[in-house]
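=== Structure Prediction Worksheet ===
Name of assembly: unnamed complex
Input type: mixed (protein and possibly other molecules)
Chain count: two
Listed entries:
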Amino acid sequence: MYKIAAMGDKDSVLGFKALGLEVCPVDSPEEGREALHRMAKENYAIIYITEQLAAQLPQEIARYKDALTPAIILIPGKEGSLGIGMANVKTAVERAVGADIL
Amino acid sequence: MPSTTINPTRQELNRLKNRLRTSIRGHKLLKDKRDELMKQFMDVVRENRALRKRVEEGLMKAHGAFTVAAALMSPEMLEQSLLYPKQNVELDMTFQNIMSVDVPQYQFRTSSQDPGEVYPYGFAQTSGELDDAVDALSRVLSDMLRLAEVEKTSQLLAEEIEKTRRRVNALEYVKIPEMQANIKYITMKLDENERANTIRLMKVKDMILKEAIQEKRAETAQAIEAFGGEAPTQA
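=== Predicted Assembly ===
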């Protein structure tokens, strides 16, 4: 049995609670860092994290990029999308192909 | 150019030839692996982009409704309404092997199938916008789970492709040419040794022959002297 978590500022992630995801409201990057490492150690398969928070934790997220679990997926927070999620897709293409061909 | 010192011996030559054969075969296999991975990766990335767009749009809609709901209701009330979820998502994870890369696959079940069951609160005390927000979120959830699967797959594939590509290039542009140069160097050196040896043998043979002839002449001269001492002028 694996768990799914949503992480970010309270207003952005509160709604996921209704869907049965685990919600981890985070106010500061330090808190986020701690929570992320704790979740990675437990059996969380997917962690949704708001782009606003993710922008402040680039190293932590890069660390789990090549690991099988957890999958850290960026979602737009309530302030809107910062385009980091799409940029990451682009980076993956650049990494694999050597150039952005899409 | 033989960069490091190599022994120009037949044993070394055989070893190098074997390694070259293996390297060429490995290079071909890795190249095939890279091409296939790339093909898979392109499919995954296309899906990834489409899904991400859809999820981001869906979430923005949900956030919009949520913001309105938060404005209409008191924060305590809002939190209270969502505090005890009725719905529960169960997630199972299996692994699929794409060209020796393990990628996760998620199977999820929601505890109740009824879409009306997602609202964990009574309708009397909450605003309609909250219903909209929860509805929009529950709609986007299956896409979000699929996105997680696809995005992780694309990340893992990208890493593997990068690795494979480096190996292919290292073999193609460094290892194989180096081995070929070394093999050439050894064959040249061995041939050179061979020629040197032949020449030496010819020289030795010459020297021995010359000696033998001189010996023979001396012998003849001695014999003639013993006979009477005049013959050479006749001959």
